[in-house]
Known about the structure:
Helix content is 27%, strand content 13%. It is α/β, with parallel strands linked by helices. Helix 3 (62-70) crosses helix 8 and helix 7 runs parallel beside helix 8. It binds calcium ion. Calcium ion (CA) is lined by residues 31-32, 83, 245, 304-305.
Amino acid sequence: MIRFVLCALLLALGSPASAAAPPNIIIFLVDDMGVMDTSLPFLTDAAGQPKRYPLNDYYRTPNMERLAARGIRFNNFCAMSVCSPTRISILTGQNAARHHTTNWINPDKDNAGPQGPPDWNWQGLKKTDVTLPHLMEDNGYRTIHVGKGHFGPRAFEGAEPKNLGFDINIAGCSIGAPGSYYGMENYGNRKGAKKPGAAVPGLEKYWGTQTFLTEALTLEAKDAVSGAVKEKQPFFLYFANYAVHAPFNSDPRFADHYKDSGKPEAAQAFATLIEGMDKSLGDMLDHLDALGVADNTLIFFLGDNGSDAPLGDEHAVACAAPLRGKKGAHYEGGMRVPFIAAWAKADSENEYQKKLPIPAGVIQPQIAAVYDLFPTILNLTGKQSPKDYIVDGSKLDTLLTGKADPERKEEFLMHYPHSPHRSNYFTSYRLGDWKVIYHYVPSVDSENSHYQLYNLKKDPFEQTNLAPTETAELRRMMEGLIAAMNREDAVYPVDKDGTTRMKPQIP
Length: 507
Ligand code: CA
């Protein structure tokens, strides 16, 4: 705050023309949105051109298309396979294997699962943790949290985003899903309920109205941004829509668009949640234009884990088609998410756009992940994390300009030492074209083997397990996986005796 006042004073005294106002940053995070839940194609054909699949023709996301036309989208962007691990990775710049929140946080209890590591971080983030909003706040930014938190259980510090460096918190707490998206149902605040359950906090002024939760959050986010602009303070907005997580409440504003689709009722409702989220994005873009700050605002749009689209009985295989698997799974459908980065309005004269020129309408195929936002945003805004603090992410600057970054290690470690939540006790590791999956307890899925191995370049939809035949490659990948886990200080599930750690083995 003191630094902000000093900055404001210097500006008032007449600073050199080169001292442009720091760029505003928006992280627009969508809950449970996989890379196929959009009309914007992310996957590409062999020539690297965007390729449409049937799901792209089902969903309607014109504002994602609008944002992508202004910026770059990544088609190998990786998230953790469930909510809290990704959210904490965004705030800390660390992989879940390192920050140890490897499962979604249950607001009321330790959610380790029967053989989950007893030392996993089920209590989530603490006040004293290094976080992106703390650092942005120190740097003179107004830090605004809107929507879903899910950073810690109800009785712990992480439940309140204001403990983690946010100046403003709108509707965020420990819960991972709203009791209801409907204003007429007070967003899950039930009269006389003994337990708070899945009640969305705040937003009382919309209770008993027809305002859908996504709309209420958007109106509040716009207000908060207006407040920062009015007071000439740069803002960092972390806008985490509760959409499109279950419950699949149909948004009446868009229901007509899907009523003749032939899809199940829940799948239609899900599509309305997607479209409402997309309108939220469009409304924010319009608002930045109206406030005259679009040229100095950088937006990062992303999902927090793979799709959970309720597409019917077969949805476990079809909901992210053609990708295999869904939210929580060890397949790409569990952890591949949409990612778009764009300046809200192009301006070749803007100092920060000169520093980070983002090309329009381009697809970046290199691997990147949710923890990369932390160093990218700090670097752009001229802030460093503490010297002894370990960051697993690396700056996206080169990739954001549309170029290849030969310096970057193309890897992604995804550690899920828990059961049961859609997939059991696994660690997967991508390196270049290859992906290995280690199952701590052999499952039916893995053909009763500890190992699955895929060449994602030749087999992007993970159809042919090469573990039995490509034994040298399997060994090499398992060595990489184990080295990454050691490097990141991962915690391991325990065997049935409750104490012996189960650790990945090289075959
Ligand atoms: Ca999620």
